[in-house]
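> tool_call: predict_assembly(chains=two)
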Amino acid sequence: MISKIEAVIKKVLGKEVKFSVTASEKPEFGHYSTNAAFFVKGDPQKLADEIRQQAKNFFEKVEAKGKFINFWISKNALLEELNKVIKTPKFKIKNLKLKINIEFISANPTGPLTMANGRGGFLGDVLANVLERVGHKVTREYYINDAGNQIKLLGESVLAALGKAEPKDTHYQGNYIKELAGRLNKELRIKNYGAEEVGRLAAAELLKEIKKSLKNVNIDFDIWFSEYQNLHKKGELKKVLETLEKNGLVSKREGAKWLAGHVLVKSDGQPTYFLADLAYHYDKFIKRKFDCVIDIWGADHHGYIDRLKTGVKALGVNPDKLKIIITQLVRLVENGKEVRMSKRAGEFVTLDELVKEVGKDATRFFFLMHAPETHMDFDLALAKEKSQKNPVYYVQYAFVRCGAILRKAKLKRIKNYAMPAGRQELRIKNLESESELNLMRELVKLPDVVLQTAEDCQVSRVARYASELARAFHNFYEKERVIVEEKELTEARLALVSATQHILGEVLSILGINQPAKM
RNA sequence: GCCCUCUUAGUUCAAUGGAUAGAAUAUCUCCCUCCGAAGGAGGUGAUGCAGGUUCGAUUCCUGCAGAGGGCACCA
């Protein structure tokens, strides 16, 4: 809808003028408005009239108020647009076709997923959904850090728990290590593994747990990329290092190899994580040829952004193709006091615990509502208490109400309203009331919401839209009875309900939230 | 010390540089003869401080205060 209005304004202005069109927040400002008159000389009302002339049937009214120009969309145009949205196959609103890799969570396999991992997890999952809706080819990827020191440390921790090694402060603590040690004990008794091998074994075991947790919250990955198997074992680090050396970008100092002030190979000959990461991004950009790579990291890695971008540039890749999204850390608060979350100290709330206490859908919505850059304090007890008031239920309830009405219509054998697969033309020409039209205006916003989100990655917009759409529906439900005496009116309203069910269902599906039949 | 992020109703969050700063929740009133009240209608209530740029600043810039995070031959 917005791009349509923009196109009309552009036609009138004739030249490149920077302006924007937004959905209006207040009824007196119409349905949409633009600030275009701020940027051109002349009477705003005259400009408004010219715009109206350009698309007479589309606009019911175009009116300048001060320098703002407000648009009222005609009923026919609204209905036409709604039909268009409903009939879009799979709601795929564009076909942009970029090959995008989105890597998220990638928590080290040295412990269970914490609730903070959920933040980046849900963000990545939903962002991937959004990007798919505009036609991109999206690969969801989890990078498994199974090659560094932490694996050896994990192995030592397990051995220490079995009394086969000296306990140290740096070891991973917590019950999960003891449980893990118990599970591995049988195998370890037969074979005499070193710390690194034990670590690898333990990491594989923990990765199974991580996969289970993610499955439980409906986050799927296309690729689980093992640093050890796919990079180290295949000698990819060496290859990338050689490439960089050939291009004269590597310098030697104090026995180590450097790239632009960062160490690639330590003086003891061991590669750094930086080199592994370069090999990884070489794999993504050069070998697998992704047009765009999105990494979602926690705020504790923000200092690493410049380094990686520099490195990627050294590989000959335009660093703008690498988009890094930072999510602020989540602080765990208990009884008003902060608890440091640490796998080493064994102090954390796992994602599993959180989901068990608060519920899958409420957990998802809670994280998705918040912009990634907001700092969050998280109190498990409070979250549990508040989950009853989570807006997700408001949205799901609207969806349930749609279903309840349509069920009743079916029982009464009312026909001519159904929209199987969203293909049928909506028969809603005789809907006139404000709550009905308002609902239609909300429904029609779906493509704009998805497009904008695919553009700026602000996933919380989708969650907000879900609430707004639900409100428009609840409002309609309260004001108008759907199944009434007049047959035509009933059919029209049922069609509207059916359209709402489809679009609300699509929004829930983008958000990865369950579409319940009952609550 | 240097760098990044954040600061908006009691609380949790919105607002591509635009209009009278929106919601939710809490609180105070109302509304079930009804397709489910997990709902609807209304009241109260907010931009940390000081400058600057601009026709216009919650938004951009500078300084200050407060909160979180980062500054490794760790990953």
